[in-house]
Amino acid sequence: MKVVAKKPESLTEAKYHYCPGCTHGIIHRLIAEVMDELQIREETIGICPVGCAVLAYNYFNCDMLEAAHGRAPAVATGIKRLLPQNTVFTYQGDGDLASIGLGEIMHASIRGELITVFFVNNAIYGMTGGQMAPTTLLGQVTTTSPYGRKKEDSGYPVKMAEILALNQGSAYISRVSLHNPANVIKAKKAIKKALETQKNREGFSMVEILSTCPTNWGMNPLEALKWLEQEMIPYYPLGDFVSKKEA
């Protein structure tokens, strides 16, 4: 019998702890498939900080480390400089990367650190109770913005891909989405491109992945995917913002 699909070797047998409809599991699968295809599992080191993916070490079948909240890029920088032959990635949420970890991600990009960042943007703090995140949309209701986010009080949602694309150290910056199968395929291509950018020593790489949080959005999974498509993508446009070779 021909095998048409199987679990990637870069994933363990552990069952996900994520809420129903959460797309973290899809992202894990895509990263693992790319690790298998590039044959880099044995040399890969992943870093996860605080957030919904804090238990990612249970799922990725490679070396994994934990970092303090927001500090994954700093930890990744140290590991990559110490072990330049290894592939090093961080897996971070929007509250982690775009709030408490904003300084770390900015300067890792500015320095052109040879690491890859997978940035999961679901426009809310997931693990800690659905508070407003830096990426929360205007008008979006959260536990700390019960009347919707207002620009007069909280400013505008931060666009990390656009910001990091301005830095000369950034070699590949892309934003993708998981709201339908076609875009899942595109997301995998971007993940592969980002890891190849690191392997080719071209510079810093990041893939921002628009994701859902049905539990904290107060929606069922299908409603959440539709909300992502209709509300998030118009503000967070998809595509490559930087894709270059080292001069």
Explain what this protein looks like in three dimensions:
With 247 residues, the protein is an alpha/beta fold. It has a single domain (24-243), classed as Thiamin diphosphate (ThDP)-binding fold, Pyr/PP domains (Rossmann fold, 3-Layer(aba) Sandwich), CATH 3.40.50.970. It contains nine helices and seven strands. Strands 2-1-3-4-6-5-7 form a seven-stranded mixed beta sheet, sandwiched between helices. Strand 5, helix 7 and strand 6 (204-210) form a beta-alpha-beta unit. Helix 1 (24-38) crosses helix 7 (181-199) and helix 3 (94-100) crosses helix 4 (102-111).
Give a quick summary of the entry:
The protein contains 9 helices and 7 strands; from the N terminus they run H-E-E-H-E-H-H-E-H-H-E-H-E-H-H-E. By secondary structure, the protein is α/β, with parallel strands linked by helices.
Mean pLDDT score, rounded? 95
Helical percentage:
25-40%
Radius of gyration: 17 Å
Order of helices and strands: HEEHEHHEHHEHEHHE
Low-confidence stretches: none
Q: In this structure, how is the largest beta sheet organized?
A: 7 strands, mixed
- Would you tell me the structural class of the helices and strands? alpha/beta
Q: Assign the CATH class.
A: Alpha Beta
Name given to the CATH architecture: 3-Layer(aba) Sandwich
With strands numbered from the N-terminus, the spatial order across the biggest sheet is: 2-1-3-4-6-5-7
Provide the descriptors you would attach to this structure in a database record.
single chain, about 250 residues, Rossmann fold, 7-stranded mixed beta sheet, 9 helices
